[in-house]
Amino acid sequence: LPHVLKKLKDVPKLGVVLGNEAGDLDSVTSALTYAYHLQEHRDYECIPVLNFPRLDLPLKTEVRFCLKKLHLNPEHLVFVDDLNWVELGDALELTLVDHNVINKPELKFLEPNVVAVFDHHVQERQDIDDLDFQLDFVGSASTLIAERIFQENPEMQEETVLKLIRWTIITDTSNLSPAKKKATKLDIEILEQIENILAESAASMWNRKVIYEEIIKAKSDTSSFCANQLLRKDLKVVYFKAPEITVSLSSLPGAMSCSKFMDRLDFRKDLDDFQRKGNYALIIALGAGDLMIYPKETDLCFKVREMLLSKNPDIKIKVDQSKFSDVEYLRRSNVAYTRKKIMPLVKEAIEECK
C-alpha cells in the first residue's frame, strides 16, 4: 500500500470516489463499485477512499463480512487518513457518494475538486450547475451507482461488483420490507436487473432472505465492543460555524435500543470519553425504537427535542423516563423515520439555536 500511495503523487490526474463518514455498507459499496467502473472506463487512475480512519475498520463488521465473502481483503483498501490530500493538489477529481457535501472541516478545501455526486440524502450542496449531480431518495445509494454503471456499460457482467451492490440494496431496504418503507421502484428494478444477470431468479426471494439475515447478523456482532466503539460504529458528525459546534449522530447496531445501551456498565465512562475526544456539544444516538440526547440541560438539547416533538408528528416520538438525569430519552414508534430523515431536523434545530 505505501508503494501505491507514493505512486499516486506522480499521476497527472487522479479520480477519487469518497464515501461518507459513517462508512456503512452502502457507503463502502458505492465507493468501491463506482471507482472500479471509472478505472475500467476512464483514461486515468481512479481509486475508492473510505471516509473513516483505518483504525475504525474492525467496527465495520458487516463491511468486513461482505468483503470476506467475496475474497477481498479490506486491509488493502485506502482510508481517508492514508492520503496526504494537500499533496494531491490540482490532479484530484473527487466524486462524492452517499453524501453531497464535504463535512469534515479539514477537508473542506477540497470542495473545488468535486466533479460528481451520487446521493440519496437531503440536498445540502448549493452550487450544482457544473457537476455531474445525481440525487434521488432511493433506499440505497448503491442503486444510483448501479443505474449509472448500466447506463454507461449495458454489458456489465462483473460478478463481484454486482453481488456487492445486490447485497447492499437488500440490506439498505430491509429486504424490500413494505413495513420499513425504504425500497423505491428504482431499488427494486435495479435489484431485479442484477439478479437476472446473476441468474438468481429461480430462488431469488429465498436467497435475499438468507443474505439479508447473514449481513444483519454480522452487523449486530458487537459483543466485544465497548460503549465507545458502539457509538463510533455507525457515526455521522455535523459541523456548524459561528459559533463552532460539533454534533454526533450515532445509529446503534442491530436491534440494540438506547435503553439497553444505557444499561451497560461502561456506558457512563465511555459516553464522557466519547464526548471529550470528539469535543461534541451534543451527542445523539438512535436505537431500536428509541433515541437519546446528551447532555440534557442545554439549549441545544431543548431545541432538538422540541423540533422532534412538536414540528414533526410523523416521527411518532415522545419523552420517557431516562435512567440518567443528564440524558434525554425519547421513544419513537415510526420505524420508517431513520437517521437519514432525522438528521435534517437536527440541523434545522441547531441552526435556529445559534
Automatic annotation (TrEMBL):
SMART domains: DHHA2
Cofactor(s) listed in the protein's UniProt record: Mn(2+)
Extent of the signal sequence: none
Keyword Manganese: yes
Keyword Manganese annotated: yes
InterPro entries, A to Z: DDH_dom (IPR001667), DHH_sf (IPR038763), DHHA2 (IPR004097), DHHA2_dom_sf (IPR038222)
Keywords recorded for this protein, A-Z: Hydrolase, Manganese, Metal-binding
Domain of life: Eukaryota
Gene3D superfamilies recorded: DHHA2 domain, inorganic pyrophosphatase (n-terminal core)
GO cellular component: cytoplasm
MF annotations from Gene Ontology: exopolyphosphatase activity; metal ion binding
Record-annotated DHHA2 domain positions: 212-350
Family: Belongs to the PPase class C family. Prune subfamily.
Name this polypeptide is given: DHHA2 domain-containing protein
